[in-house]
Amino acid sequence: MIPAVYSLNENEYTFYAHTKGVTRFRSIDNFISLLWAYTMYDKNLSDFNLISKVLEEYSCCGCLKLNKPYTCLSFVPWHYSGAFFWFNNKKLFSKNWKNIRPVMHGLEGYMATHFASQEAYSIEPSLRDGFEDTYNPEHWVNFYRG
Known about the structure:
- By secondary structure, this protein is an alpha+beta fold.
- The protein has one domain (2-145).
- 32% of the residues lie in helices and 14% in strands.
- The chain has five helices and six strands.
- The protein has helices at residues 28-45, 48-57, 89-93, 110-114, 137-145, and strands spanning 13-17, 60-62, 65-66, 79-80, 84-88, 120-122.
- It has a four-stranded mixed sheet. It has a two-stranded antiparallel ribbon with strand order 3-4.
- Helix 1 (28-45) crosses helix 5.
- The longest helix has 18 residues, at 28-45.
- The chain is globular.
- The protein starts with 12 loop residues before the first strand and ends with a helix.
């Protein structure tokens, strides 16, 4: 997908969304994936004016920005949990954008491979509150019950 949106226009932005929960729905764990996806789409797509303003200054933005490595993402110091994010095309494509880790979670760490945490904006930082592990389905159940 990345080469298809190549542009050095500073006013062009791209949204990437990992399609969690669309291949299987057989258990509560899969239902949690749907809740996660719904939340990510809702938070990332609900305010285009905010996104536009943010991406004038920041290189990327997204929900569940975690400023810590995760076990399978130990190659980056931060990441957008779940791989839902926006990026400023010019700011990414002015770098070595073809550099991606050829591992299962490589795209989840893609923004952190190219940008420092200070260049990455966190949409809805309060969404992280109470999450010790955003990958734990139990935390999502509690989030939606609360």
